[in-house]
Specification:
The chain is of the alpha+beta class and 95 residues long. The chain is 46% helix and 21% strand. Strands 2-3-1-4 form a 4-stranded antiparallel sheet, covered by helices on one side.
């Protein structure tokens, strides 16, 4: 699942608050990656959704309002897609 958590009402720079959400994701132990727009986390639906909720709660504890965007790729039984998809693209670019 790719998601972003954006604190609202806290000024222009929200990086420190976003870092709180990423800290929760990394502490989960689930495979994850963060870039400029989204944090992507891989795992079973319930465990991923629990981590997303914890991340939102961590930001909501310090911001008056939080915007959340989610995008999920549900493929039961598939693991390692977080890196495999990127590796496939990189291989195609080398050809």
């Amino acid at each position: 699942m790719a998601f972003s958590v954006t604190p609202l009402g806290e000024g222009d720079s929200v990086g420190d608050l976003v870092a709180e959400a990423v800290r929760v994701v990394r502490a989960s132990g689930l495979p994850n990656r963060t870039d400029a727009m989204f944090t992507t986390i891989e795992g079973e639906w319930d465990e991923v959704m629990a981590v997303v909720k914890q991340a939102v709660d961590a930001v909501a504890a310090k911001a008056p309002r939080v915007s959340v965007t989610l995008k999920a790729d549900v493929r039961p039984g598939v693991t390692g897609a977080l890196t495999a998809k990127v590796e496939h693209i990189e291989e195609a670019l080398r050809e």
